[in-house]
Structure formats: C-alpha cells, structure tokens
Amino acid sequence: MSKALPPVSGTVYGTLLNYKGELDALGDAVNRPPYQAPPRGPIMYIKPVNTIIGYGKPIPLPEDVQELSMGAALGIVIGKTATRVNESEALDYIAGYTVVNDVSIPHSSVYRPAIKQKIRDGFCPVGPCVIERDAVDNPDDLTVRVKINGDVRQENTTKHLIRPAAKLIADVTDFMTLSAGNILLVGVPENAPLAKAGDRVRIEIDGVGCVENTVVREDELKRGKKQ
C-alpha cells in the first residue's frame, strides 16, 4: 500500500497500564513512593494532532535518540458523544476500530506520562482504515502483533486487558466526554519492541488490519524537504 492519510482526525487518547502483564511488570514498585498503590482508575494521556500520521508515512527518529518504542494498540473510534456511559451500553458508542502505533521514546515514567517522549511529531501512525463495529465479533479477543523488518517481535491479545473495551469506555466517560471521531486506545502490551533508523515496522491486529511505517532519522527528513 502507498502512503495514505489517517482515517480519522479526532483526538487520540491513550491508556497506560491496561494490560495485565504491563502492570505485573512493575511488581512491588506500585506500592512504593510516589505511587503507594496500584491505579484505581484509567491513567490517560493525549496524542495530539501533530503526532498523527497515516500508513506509509515515515516515523521521525529524533537526532539524539537511537531507538523508539513501538506500541501496538487497538484504537476504538467513537461514533457519538459519550458522557457517563453505562458499561452495558458502552459498545453502542463505538463506530469502529483501527490500528494504532503508539510510538514513544523509551522512558520509565508511568503514573505521570512522559509528555516529551510521547507527543513528538509523527509518533502516532493510524490506519489505514476504520473497520465497522459489527465486523469485529469481540474487541476483547483480538491478537495484536508487532513485526520489524518482517520478523515477529511481539504478540499479545486483548484478552489480557484489565479494562475490556466496554469497561474502559464506561470508566473514561465517567470523568470526561468522548466525541465522535475521537480514538480511545485500549493500551499497549508490556515489553514493546524497539526500532531503529531504517527499520520497517508493521502493527497487525487480527480482524482489524495493519499499519506499516519506516523509522527515518529526523535530520534526513529535514534534508529531504530542502531538496
């Protein structure tokens, strides 16, 4: 597939620590300062519009960084305004699903998302399309896969979510409104693989699709624009 525009233009909201393995990997650290206890509610962050790119667009690698973390995420595309939604009705607010690569610079911050490491330009490949809600039998039983240069580097499943899709929507809309076109990421599995300059990264979600992009050094992209 050639380069494509992302299929939606709404705000992308990310969720941290929503895979069981991701939370388990922290071990007893969640009970020590500054955290003191495991999170009671969803830990959210925003991937603003500057981060969003489409299928085939280059992922910029900052000049002072050697590798980037590739975060495979199921994107829930909201179909109508959602405020204080009941869990039993939450799936009715979904327009469809898409594939997202939640790119970040490797970091250790968890409860306080590392803004500079997550919202750089081009750090959120999305697409290339939205699959209608009814075409996905169960969003909580989808295999998620990361391939780098054709090799499988990670495989997990949304069966391991702490908050499945309906529960996540209900909990998030308890304190904030989601609007049509917004994308809510269910989370990224533990041990996200790293990619370096020149690597071709493909995020696959069975039944939803894939998004593929190549990591390119930021200075090379700048030189290309000047030519």
TrEMBL record:
GO terms for molecular function: 5-carboxymethyl-2-hydroxymuconate delta-isomerase activity; 5-oxopent-3-ene-1,2,5-tricarboxylate decarboxylase activity; metal ion binding. The keyword Metal-binding applies. This is 5-carboxy-2-oxohept-3-enedioate decarboxylase HpaG1 subunit. Keywords: Metal-binding. InterPro entries: Fumarylacetoacetase-like_C, Fumarylacetoacetase_C_sf, HPA_isomer/decarb_N. The keyword 4Fe-4S does not apply. NCBIfam families: HpaG-N-term. It comes from the Bacteria. Residues 11-216 form the Fumarylacetoacetase-like C-terminal domain.
